[in-house]
Each structure stands twice: as C-alpha cells, then as structure tokens.
TrEMBL record:
Similarity remark: Belongs to the ATPase B chain family.
Coiled-coil regions listed: 64-98
Annotated keywords: ATP synthesis, CF(0), Chloroplast, Coiled coil, Hydrogen ion transport, Ion transport, Membrane, Plastid, Thylakoid, Transmembrane, Transmembrane helix, Transport
Name used for this protein in its record: ATP synthase subunit b, chloroplastic
Organism, scientific name: Cajanus crassus
Annotated InterPro entries: ATP_synth_b/b'su_bac/chlpt
A Pfam entry, by short name: ATP-synt_B
C-alpha cells in the first residue's frame, strides 16, 4: 500500500514527519501555502475586510442619502421656480391685458379729444363766418346808407332853393332845442 502522503494529489514525494527542510516541489507546496495564507487572511482579515466593507457601505448610504436630500431640495427649488414662473406669467398676462385695455382707453380718449377739438374748431369757424357776415352786412348797410344819403342830399340840393333850405334848417334847430329843454327840465 502506498503512503497517504504520496498519493496526495499525486504530485510527488513528501518528506517524512520529523524532519525539517525545504520542499522544492513547487506544485506540491503552492496549494498548501495558498490554503494556509487564505486561511490566515480569512481568519485575521475577516474583521478588517468586514470593517472596510461596512465603512464603504456607510459612505455609499450617506452619499445616497445626501443625493436624495439634494434631489428633494432641487425638486423643491424647481417647484418654487415653477410657481414663480406661473406667477410671473399670470402677472405678465394681466399686464398685457391691462396694457391693451389701457391702450384702448387712451385711444378712445384721444379720439374723443380729437372730436372735441374738431367741434370747437367747427364752432370757431362758424363764429368767424358769422362775424365776417355781420361785418360785411354792416359795411353794405353803411354803403347803402351813404349812397341813400348822398342821393337824398343830391335830390334835396337840386330841389331846394336857398330859402327853403334855410327854413328846413331852422325848423330842425327848433325841434332840437325843444327836445333839449324837455330832457333838461
């Protein structure tokens, strides 16, 4: 029967127990060394690795929480900005409507003012025409009266002789004198 140590992985010769030395067979010693190193690493490194993983997990969770808080803050700011935008748009619409109303009101006021001014100008024109007509009528009357007087004087001068003229003047002076006495008395 073969030795158990000889049949281990059929890798070659193992020195007997009790002797100390170096095994130069790399294929036989590497799996053993690796398993010992891994065992030591797992035994001693489990706590360190667990702490590192826990720290990393906590940092990731903190980062996620911070990101969520930042996201919530950003959403809140976005909602506030959207509310301000709606408010500004409402104000702009109100100003636009009021502006249009104000423009229409100013337009109507301007049109009414122009109509009033035109009516006043029409009245001034009519008054000027009436005044000019009265002036022309008065001039025509004065000319007609002058011509009538000149015609009457011409007729009187041609019809009257000196004596008749003298008596007419005296009669008029007499009438004028009696009128004066009535007014003074």
């Amino acid at each position: 029967m073969k030795n158990i140590t000889d049949s281990f992985l059929c890798l070659g010769y193992w020195p007997s127990a009790g002797s100390f030395g170096f095994n130069t067979d790399i294929l036989a010693t590497n799996p053993i060394n690796l398993s010992v190193v891994l065992g030591v690493l797992v035994f001693f490194g489990k706590g360190v690795l667990s702490d590192l993983l826990d720290n990393r997990k906590q940092r990731i969770l903190r980062t996620i929480r911070n990101s969520e808080e930042l996201r919530e803050g950003a959403i809140e700011q976005l909602e506030k900005a959207q509310a301000r935008l709606r408010k500004v748009e409402t104000e702009a619409d109100r100003f636009r409507v009021n502006g249009y109303s104000e423009i229409e009101r100013e337009k109507l006021n301007l049109i009414n003012s122009i109509y009033t001014t035109l009516e006043q100008l029409e009245n001034y024109k009519n008054e000027a025409i009436h005044f000019e007509q009265q002036r022309v009528i008065n001039q025509v009357r004065q000319r007609v009266l002058q011509q009538a007087l000149q015609g009457a004087l011409g007729t009187l001068n041609s019809c009257l002789n000196n004596e008749l003229h003298f008596r007419t003047v005296n009669a008029n002076i007499g009438m004028f004198g009696t009128m004066k006495e009535k007014n003074n008395g």
